[in-house]
Amino acid sequence: MDTRLILSIAKSMLLARWRQTLVAAVGVTFSIAMFVTLLSFMNGLNDMLDSLILNRTPHVRLYNEIKPSDNQPVNVAAQYEDSYNFISSVKAGVTRQEIYNSGPILQAVKADERVLGAAPKLLAQVFFNEGTIDITGVINGIDVEEESRLFNFQDYVTSGNAIDAKNVANSIILGKGLADILVADIGDVVQVTTAQGERFSLKVVGYFQSGIQEIDKVQSYASIATTQKLLGKPANYMTDIQIKLHDLEQAPAMAREYAQLFRVDAEDIQTANAQFDTGSSIRSLISYAVGVTLLVVAGFGIFNILNMMIYEKMDSIAILKATGFSGRDVNLIFLVIAMSIGFFGGMVGLLFGFIFSVIIDNIPFNTAALPTIETYPINYSPVFYFIGGSFSLITTYFAGYFPARKASKVDPVEIIRGK
Amino acid sequence: MNEKKEHMQEVILEARGINKEFHDPVTVQVLRDITFTVNKGEFVSVIGKSGCGKSTLLYILSTMDTDYTGELLIDRELMTGRPDKELARIRNEKIGFVFQFHYLLNEFTVLRNVMLPGLKLGKFSEQEVEHRAIERLKMLGIEKLASKPAYHISGGEKQRVAIARALINDPHIIMGDEPTGNLDKRNSDIVFNIFKELTEEHNQTLLIVTHDPEFAENSNRIIEMEDGRIIRH
Known about the structure:
The complex is a heterodimer.
Chain A: H1 2-16, H2 18-54, E1 60-63, H3 73-76, H4 102-111, E2 115-130, E3 133-142, H5 144-151, H6 153-156, E4 157-160, H7 164-167, E5 171-175, H8 176-182, E6 189-194, E7 199-208, H9 213-216, E8 219-223, H10 224-231, E9 240-245, H11 251-262, E10 265-268, H12 269-272, H13 274-312, H14 314-322, H15 327-361, H16 382-408, H17 412-417
Parallel strand pairs in A: 3-8, 5-7
Antiparallel strand pairs in A: 1-9, 1-10, 2-3, 2-6, 2-9, 4-7, 5-8, 6-7
Helix pairs in contact in A: 1-15, 2-13, 2-15, 2-16, 13-16, 15-16
Chain B: H1 2-8, E1 11-22, E2 28-39, E3 43-48, H2 54-61, E4 69-74, E5 77-78, H3 84-94, E6 95-98, H4 110-121, H5 126-139, H6 155-167, E7 173-177, H7 185-201, E8 205-209, H8 213-217, E9 221-226, E10 229-232
Parallel strand pairs in B: 3-8, 3-9, 6-7, 7-8
Antiparallel strand pairs in B: 1-2, 1-4, 4-5, 9-10
Helix pairs in contact in B: 4-5, 4-6, 6-7
């Protein structure tokens, strides 16, 4: 009964000055809408920039690093065990770039249930011959189907068809920058010289655009079989195994595990791309800071309006107290007023935030650097709506707290006699 | 007559040695050793010159002002020293209030204004409170105003609505701070006649502060104050 009465009194007071109420609520609506839109947009951008690198980066990469042996023979020899050995001009030994036993390793990794998939890769350093000029480049020999499934390869092939690299014999997909230098159209044939001095002709079946110009000037893709042929290697020759996991967070631990198990070098994505994580988290931090500032400003707006309202309602407060409402009742009435402004303003704000997000999501955004993006990116995570909603209630509670306390302390005698 | 005598002896309100001082800007004693009782069914006027402390006394008696020494009893229960919440409940249940400046809540209709203290008391359901409110408006001849917003009615009507509100919880006593002070002669008479009728026909106890000698003369009993003391009662 009491609660209903307090709610109905709060409602009447709110509606009696609905214009003022509306101004306060619009303040909350605006800030919540902006908060949600800003965070959705910022995180959409973050996701896009991250995916630019992270989506295409294996979570764990297995490879064989060419490096000198940690155990030089003289240190192992029994008769020099107690001496201090100086070795100069240490060279890498007969280690090969190839991963030993690549076939069984690939099978074992694919059988691991933590693994989403694994794709082999073979790097070949080549020269592209453009008349008399040689241009250095890299051919990535890939399993086109697996590469597309795991690392969205087909998204970055802007002209031509990714699968042609596999279906057309002796074909190549050139980076867009590289193709411009070579003036090679789709269907043209480019001349390639390997580091071993072998010359090959490869047919261009597509362009590749990563969004990072420096990469596009150097990189090109061919099927793994073509690349093996280029290097004169057998069909089990591969330099990298790229692994994608179900859970990104497990990468460092699994990299260590595989390194030990298969006796190869293993690099996890967190180590390889630490700077991207830092960038994203700082961008998020900034957008949260701006969003919270908006809400706090709205909170001050509510605080002001409630304070004014309490001065206007002094008579009403006095009469409520004189007729038997306690200080606590009055406090509750004003808290309810503040919280309803927060609640309704916040709800409408969330709705507007969603509408703004949809609008931004539909604005065309075409840039050569980002071939897969057609509109501005938006992240529709419910987390932002949840944070925005709770924050609108929390700020309005605090904005209402002090005015409500003041109202509860109003001395009715002073008001009634003051006339 | 005998029965009425018995009622008269039932003490509704008792003040025992009430003193009050104002400390700002200098200490002034506004009430000195106020001791008196009000019995059930009495219509008491409190008169005195401006600044004699009669309003101050009324607000102490109404439990709204708790900054005094001495003892206050309402319905034979000690009010002095009780917490705010209990006093609010006692005001709600046992005291009806009529002020000089009407003090209706402008956000509500006339009917709702009358109902609010009843809803707060929570003794009756909302329908019953509404029924009781309409009864009281009828008694005061203003039931046709029930659905009007409180700010749309005249001063005299407002004061009658305030009286209806004061009556909603069947209080032990109705207190008024110059309830006719802001009204013209015709409306003053209407309000006075309502008070008279309440005390004669419904045995309602009234304690009214006034500076209108005619109003006071026509009540049952006059308490006259001067310089914070009662000089006649």
